[in-house]
């Protein structure tokens, strides 16, 4: 599955349009990661636990979007965008969406 954040795929032609597809995941903070983040706030630096959590969340949401597109018969998703929102104290949703198409 080809993913792009632009409206077309350079060198390819969109031959079929399937509409919007999306994927999401809701994740809660992890107490162990919170403790390490608190320590990093004192000395500075990357919060690697949260970086890993966000990467896992992005991958899970993208995989769910790709599965939806495959079920429609798409081989590409264009105009891919990400959004986040808080859903509860200490929990957030990561949402990804795009337009499923078939390209040649």
Q: What do these coordinates show?
A:
With 104 residues, the protein is of the alpha+beta class. It has one domain: Hypothetical protein apc22750. Chain B (Translation Initiation Factor IF3), CATH 3.30.110.70. The chain is 37% helix and 41% strand. The mean pLDDT is 88.
List keywords for this structure.
2 helices, 4-stranded mixed beta sheet, 104 residues, alpha+beta
What is the gist of this entry?
The protein is an alpha+beta fold.
CATH-defined superfamily: Hypothetical protein apc22750. Chain B
The level 1 CATH classification is: Alpha Beta
Number of helices in the DSSP assignment:
2
Low-confidence stretches: none
Number of domains: 1
- What is the H-and-E element order? EEHHEE
Instruction: Label the overall shape.
Output: elongated
**CATH topology annotation:** Translation Initiation Factor IF3
CATH architecture: 2-Layer Sandwich
Helix content: 25-40%
**Distance separating the two termini:** 13 Å
Q: State the assembly state of the protein chains.
A: single chain
Radius of gyration: 17 Å
Work out the strand percent: 35-45%
Mean pLDDT across every amino acid position:
88
